[in-house]
Specification:
It is elongated and about 75 Å long. It has 187 residues and is an all-alpha fold. The N and C termini lie far apart (78 Å). The protein has eight helices and no strands. Helix 1 runs antiparallel to helix 6, helix 4 packs antiparallel against helix 6 and helix 6 packs antiparallel against helix 7.
């Protein structure tokens, strides 16, 4: 066991879930019924994209160090093909499935200008499946004797769930006017 790789793997895993939660929250903010306006919109969208790409670096380091570290047996195939690991098959498999989704999201986002908007949006909805997988992966495989690491993952879950609730319940700024127009008689 290489302690440096062990700590880098844990640290980059936690950094990944924090950054991915921020990406999720910013994505919901930009796609909500109450998006930021003007220059704030461009800043939020730029931050969303930058953090998304930055989080993939931490995710790659997390995977590379998990493979290189010899305390548990996770090979390169298990990092790409879900549910093939000899160690904690289900929980490592969830992480692998999440990585496959992230790779799909990154590739389709880089090719966004070359594909129909509807297809890109459909693929981008996979982020809502990826994020809970990453949380469960982190909670089940995280270091149980480090409450700060587990607490960080739980806090990410609370923040992401709150943002999702806000996204689902937020109304349009002009919803009162819309209801008034719908209530009018049409001649």
């Amino acid at each position: 066991m290489n302690e440096l790789l062990w700590y880098v793997s844990r640290g980059t895993g936690v950094a990944s879930i924090v950054l991915l939660t921020a990406v999720l929250v910013l994505g919901m903010l930009t796609a909500s019924r109450r998006p930021p306006a003007g220059i704030r919109s461009a800043v939020v969208m730029g931050l969303h994209r930058s953090l998304a790409l930055g989080s993939t670096v931490f995710l790659f380091l997390h995977i590379a160090t998990a493979i290189a570290e010899t305390y548990v047996s996770i090979d390169l195939v298990s990092a790409v093909v879900p549910f093939t690991s000899g160690y904690e098959r289900a929980w490592v498999g969830l992480g692998t499935l999440g990585v496959d989704i992230v790779a799909t999201l990154v590739v389709t986002s880089l090719l966004r200008h070359r594909m129909p908007e509807r297809i890109w949006r459909g693929v981008h909805l996979l982020a809502f499946a990826f994020w809970p997988m990453a949380l469960v992966h982190g909670l089940t495989l995280g270091t149980s004797d480090q409450p700060l690491l587990r607490g960080t993952t739980l806090a990410c879950g609370v923040v992401g769930a709150a943002a999702l609730g806000w996204r689902l319940l937020a109304t349009s700024p002009d919803h009162v006017r819309r209801h008034a127009v719908l209530a009018e008689e049409w001649s």
